Prior knowledge:
The chain has 244 residues and is mainly alpha-helical. It folds into 2 domains: 3-37 and 109-239, no CATH class; 56-101, no CATH class. Helices cover 53% and strands 0% of the residues. The radius of gyration is 22 Å and the shape is elongated. It starts with a helix and ends in a 5-residue tail after the last helix. The mean pLDDT is 88. It comes from Tistrella mobilis. This is DUF2309 domain-containing protein. One of its GO terms (molecular function) is metal ion binding. InterPro entries: DabA (IPR018752). Keywords: Cell membrane, Membrane, Metal-binding, Transport, Zinc.
Amino acid sequence: MPETARLLAEIEAAAACIAPWRPLHTMIAINPLQGLEDLPFEAATAEAARLFGGRPWPDAGMVAPALADGRISAPVLTVAALRHGRPELADPDRLIKALQHEVVPGRRAATGAAADLDRLTGFWLAAFLDQGQATWAMPDRELGFYRAWRRLARHDRAIPERRRIDQLPDDPAVLVHQRLAGLDIATREGIIRAHLVALPGWVAHLRWRVAEGGHHPWNAVAPASLLDYVAVRLALADLLGGTL
């Protein structure tokens, strides 16, 4: 398999856990666990919490009123507690206390260079994926996200070492290969997935745009690509002095 095709396959495999999202104006519900449907529900929610952060189940503030007004009945609570091997949680008071003191799994909020990386990536994605709302459209979007970013980001004073951007390869696949050279497949995929799940909302929309292809009118103006996204992330991570 040619190297670029192999890289695209790696990126697609790493992104599979993120369900494609349509724009909000379409009003079409999407199962956020769509990319994890091969797992049992409880395992899928736990994996989603680990990857994306957030609470995959109701907290004490939601459960307490539901118990009080009978939306969660005592028999249902007992069955659930026994099924999970926690018979003590059939007692509503003990359940609420347990929920109040639970440690919710999930990744921590980004800080330092990682937070800067997320902020800058989101800033440039917003400009690239604009659909006519901006008064001044981002130039060169027809070149793709990476190449358009490479042409313009040298003027972004929020990027340290921005003068080095001129030295970056023109081809996003070449940049990704350079950054991940010498790593085994599992490590490469782990790094790629970490960059994808860092901004799951943006990536979900990119996945939808990629799937739409030529059917989406804005893809002619700003062609979506997960490869471009990963290339920009890896380039910015290096310019910000962070890790891969």
